[in-house]
Amino acid sequence: MAGNTGGTQYAGGGPHPWLESIKEELQVLAPLSSSSIWKVPLTLRTVNEEAYMPRMISIGPLHYGKWDLQSMEVHKLYYMSSLLQRTPNAVQVLEEAGAAIESLEPVVRASYSESFDLEPSELAKMLMLDGCFILELFLRDGLQDLRLQDDPIFNTSWMVLTLARDLALLENQIPFVVLERLFEFVVVPSAIGHSLPALPELSLSFFSSVLYMDIGDTRASRRQFPHLLGLIYNSYIPSPRTEARGNGSGRVFIRSASALKRAGIQFRKSIGTSLFDLKFHNGVLQIPPLFIHESSASVFWNLIAYEQIFHDKMQYVTSYFSLMARLVNSSDDAELLESRGILLDSLGGPRDVPQLFEQICRHVVLKDFYYAQLCEEMNPYYKWKSYRPTKPWTLISIVASFILLALVSLHAIYTVLSYYGD
To answer: How many Cβ atoms are within 10 Å of 217's Cβ, its own excluded?
Structure first.
């Protein structure tokens, strides 16, 4: 497999035996630019390692074979069996799909930033089981009549929620092209008896319904994405016509929600907009609602990790949570936004939300702040409102103080002049 070595061949003996292992590693080195599935950086893991680790199922090679995830392997077989039974010829379809998956081996291996010790046959088997399980899971979620009465996944609400969380982890991904190829072979709409949406829309529908996250934006299907987490990310980011809102500065921020309220700024929940679509107009800050629970919080952690690794332009998710961390840095701030319907929290109360936002932003690098222009619009309004007298009697008292000071000064001057005049 050609890598960033430019196709240079390193095979052959030499006078230094210890160089042979280096030659072997260089020979299989993949180009970094093609890698889309990485281990989460250690700086982020130290804050909350649990947010990046699968709890129930392993997808792909990075967590493959872990003993605490083995119980789901049999469910993968059952789900693959259901898919194949709906095809006209299960044996033939399995053979054709298997050959297609085998042909993707170079693409798959190049998609991971780290090499893994799996034989081609073992890799193909893993991709087949993982991919078929994901497709059947999405189908059963979207089409309830496909669910079996004894299916423990959909009969136990916490299982499907945990699976959705695990499928959105950066380290728990397979290339989306694998799902697309399997979808072509093993998903037969005529056998299912339903018209099916395209695979990206089917995938987003699953995450939206299970995680209660408003991420069903069909724009994502028209953008390139490497895997399911990339699909979720692309469904969140704004459309190209609204991208020019930042000025490249990561140092322009605003005060807390409570401080802004004291300055007269009002908060209002916006309806039917993207999560990132915050607007400020005539003293009103409009913010789309954010539903926070344990599983969605994990998705946000991984979206930021994905953005920190791969995106060198505008940092949408990092910018959003950096702004929210400034807005919500106390329980009073959280309660204020909850009272406006902006924060919908099931973590445990207003005290937990500021801590979550602070932890999510810890050790992240913010190079391009998407909300710089928004903050620059709000800060002058905040300063003007903060420093001007807000009540009529405050202004009267200031004027009276100046008059009294002037009278005292005049009296002092008159006394001095009278003394010298005598």
So the answer is: 19
Q: Which of 60, 84, 71, 74 is nearest to 132 (CA)?
A: 84
Render pLDDT for 328-353 as a digit per residue (tens, 0 to 9).
999 999 999 999 999 987 776 667 89
Q: Is residue 202 within a helix (H) or strand (E), and if so which, with residue range? A: helix 199-211
**pLDDT tops 80 at residue 247:** no
Q: Is 175 left (phi over 0), alpha (psi -120 to 50) or beta?
A: beta
Q: Specify the long-range contacts of residues 16-23, CB closer than 8 Å, at least 24 apart.
A: none
Token readout for 45 is 């893991």
Contact 233, 222 (CB under 8 A): no
Q: Does the pLDDT at position 320 exceed 80?
A: yes
Q: Residue 378: exposed, middle, or buried by beta-carbon count in 10 A (0-12, 13-18, 19+)?
A: buried
- Tokens 């690794």 sit on residue: 309
- Pair of tokens at residue 130: 């993982």
Q: Where are the domains of the chain?
A: 31-236, 240-386
Give the single-character DSSP code of 112. Answer: B
One-letter amino acid of 65: G
Q: In angstroms, rounded to a whole number, what is the distance separating the alpha carbons of residues 338 and 243?
A: 28
Helical segments of 247-391, H only: 257-262, 294-310, 316-327, 331-339, 352-361, 372-387
Residue 349's alpha-carbon distances to 38, 321, 357, in angstroms, are 33, 18, 13
Helices and strands (DSSP H and E) totals, the chain = 19, 5
